[in-house]
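Appendix B. Worked example

We walk through a single record from start to finish. Start with the input: the chain for N-acetyltransferase, Streptomyces mashuensis, length 211.
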Amino acid sequence: MSFPPKDGQVEGEGVTPGATEREEPCIVRYAEAKVPAALREQVTVLHQQAWPDAGDSPHDPALDPWTVLLVTARGAVIAALDILSKEIEHEGRSYRISGLSAVVTAPDQRGKGNGRRLVAAAQEIMAIRGADLGIFTCDRPLRAFYENAGWTVLDGTVLLGGTPQAPFPSDTPGFDKVTLAAFFTERARQHAHTFRGARIALYPGETDRLW
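Next comes the structure step. The output line below is what the pipeline stores for this chain.
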């Protein structure tokens, strides 16, 4: 896989005038606040289709949110996700971590590898933006999807969401979550074992309670 585009640019040659739908869709990324309106409107529609009762509020700016899109040559968004990041302390060490949020593919584009391509590319984006590791939770039925995109399951690992005063752990009764990760830097790989079977103090806040 080639490296992802620079900020606000597309992978490869991008969208060109007169392009046809037969051309390969491009990966594009933006700081959440800088997503062009035409693309943001399409992402909002995808979110509403996937989570009709959840609303579509922006992420907490403190989590440095970035939006990553898979866009056709004609500018149609066929898959989207957000990357959230923060610093954490774990086992006496500081790490820059990133996670996935709001991963969605257009209903008529599912089963074609589009979501898998975007989720796999997110690892590279996290790494080149300075994350030591990527870590997030998903519903258990989606485990195979993320594993096929290159993420590794951390059996027994729990992410502590919310805040220290009002924690929101991923093993809350009624949840059936799996934690997945990818270790990018040498120091993260060296200490990867400390993240397995651990309770990790993520604490992203009240806006994005868990990722």
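Two observations about the output. The domain at 26-201 is CATH 3.40.630.30 (Aminopeptidase). The first helix runs from residue 37 to 50.
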